[in-house]
Design brief:
The chain has six helices and ten strands, in the order ββαβββααββαββαβα. The protein has 239 residues and is of the alpha+beta class. The longest helix has 17 residues.
């Protein structure tokens, strides 16, 4: 596989052909904001927070869905990108019901961290105050759609790592929602293995373990890289 040489924020970096800009930048120590991306799962370009500027191209490109090219000149930080990301995060707050003070993931939330890093102290658009359900039918976990940002991490880890595909999305636009199996309550979904992987990859407090109080729900994502790496190396296959 050929190696591509490109420039990111004035720094010369290399990446294998077919590798995304996001992963190439990450390996070079350049951090790009994201919510839907998580190492070990496929990329879908849902959150649009990782958009970057590429010299010679007028529109912004999602770093997680754009492959590296020879001679590419990329900027991951600019006034334009900052304004874009700031508005996206504000819209996420406005379209849901993210009340940090009473959230189980307060202080351990990626959306909250993004807001802080972008200097957001208020939301400039009208709050929608949607009426979204809370599904506490599962014996161990709870799904609070009020805090969901529809990153689909839970859906992908359930499908790609656990192999159950219990979780999916239904509806469009303002009616978009996370569902279990064919739309029944999570606790009655026969395909669910109760592994908890979906809870651990959730960037907010939308998925949490029962018994967690405000600020107590921390996420451990080390398991994901461990599983993915072990599978790639065939460490669980008998020889």
């Amino acid at each position: 596989m050929s190696v591509k040489t490109l420039t990111i924020n004035g720094k010369t970096v290399t990446g294998l052909a077919g590798t995304s800009l996001f992963n190439t930048a990450w390996e070079a120590g350049i951090r790009i904001p994201r919510l839907c991306h998580i190492g070990g799962l496929s990329d879908i370009g849902a959150c649009r927070l990782c958009l970057v500027e590429i010299e010679g191209r007028p529109r912004l490109h999602p770093a997680c869905m754009t492959e590296v090219e020879e001679g590419m000149v990329v900027r991951t930080e600019s006034e334009r990108l900052h304004a874009h990301r700031k508005l996206i995060v504000e819209l996420l707050f406005a379209e849901g019901n993210h009340v940090c003070a009473v959230c189980v993931s307060n202080g351990h939330c990626e959306l909250q961290d993004l807001a802080t890093s972008l200097g957001i102290d208020h939301v400039r658009v009208a709050y929608q105050h949607p009426r979204r359900p809370v599904d506490a039918s599962h014996a161990r976990f709870t799904l609070d759609l009020n805090r969901c940002v529809f990153c689909r991490r839970c859906m992908r880890v359930c499908d790609e790592v656990e192999g159950a595909h219990t979780l999916d999305v239904a509806g469009r636009g303002a009616e978009l929602r996370l569902i279990a199996d064919l739309g029944q309550s999570w606790g009655t979904a026969e395909s669910c293995t109760s592994c908890g992987k979906c809870v651990q990859v959730c960037p907010t407090g939308a998925l949490f373990a029962k018994g967690s109080a405000v600020g107590e729900m921390t996420k451990n994502r080390a398991f994901l890289q461990y599983i993915v790496t072990a599978r790639e190396k065939h460490e669980w296959i008998r020889k």
